[in-house]
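Annual report, structural modelling task.

Input specification for the N-(5'-phosphopyridoxyl)-D-alanine complex:
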Amino acid sequence: MPRIAYVNGRYTPHIGAGVHIEDRGFQFADGVYEVISICNGQFIDIELHLDRLDRSLFELEIPWPTTRRAFSVILREVVQRNRVKNGSVYLQVTRGSSDRDFAYPENLSPSLIIYARKTLRDTVETASVGYKVISKPDIRWKRCDIKTVSLLPAVMAKQAAVRNGAIEAWLVNEQGMITEGTSSNAWIVTLDKKLITRPIDNSILSGVTRQTVLNLAQKLGLNSIERAFSLVEAKEAKEAFCTSSTALVKPIVEIDREKIGDGRVGPVTKVLIENYLRHMENPT
Ligand code: PDD
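The model returned the following structure:
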């Protein structure tokens, strides 16, 4: 069955789908995106993703390309046409196309592209493998709260991670504090079993999975604290993990080749994985 993408009002074969060469997303990274995971044909936390999209668009003064209601209908249509039961949907809104100029005409029509992708569904077993991360200086801009398609520093750091046999790079600011991963939020568990993750500010993306995990932790009676933590503290932590819509909850057992705790997936991380997978089965 051929894959179908949505591009500016049309459902079109994925293989030839494209936008104009003067689309500002292509030339200036002048656009925003979301990745929403799909489990059993259902979107996970879709309203939280659309809320964040709304905020990203607002911050860049890009209008919604359709109404929010129509947007949800198109997202569902793309998923159905591609028969995606488990996987994710990628959506991108750019400011639109016009003659290349840093300043933009005020009346541009935004571009919208959407496509879906199938992936294997995680089980507690597949999700409980320990992963490695490396650290890299955080050289990104000062508005990481906006989910823009301007991702080059993240691309460079992720490539370095992959070359070093790691799944993610944790980004470290000039104060030695970990901000987040290239495409995920970073967490540690202290020796006294407290969950620590950086508070929301302009230096990180407000992850939907991060918020869901904070909610789950509260329901489970786990103590979580939103505060900055350093690379040094992370290396001395009992457990570590990262969260994102595609990684879900991923255990981290090594940072820069140094073991975290005993180098195995810890009990707190395991409980969160189980509960996050349960949340995906029954998203509320
Ligand atoms: N990335 N931080 C950054 C920089 C991210 O790019 C992402 C998500 C997250 C986690 O956000 P969420 O839990 O809402 O997925 C944190 C997506 C998955 C991506 O770019 O593919």
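The two ends are 31 Å apart (CA to CA).
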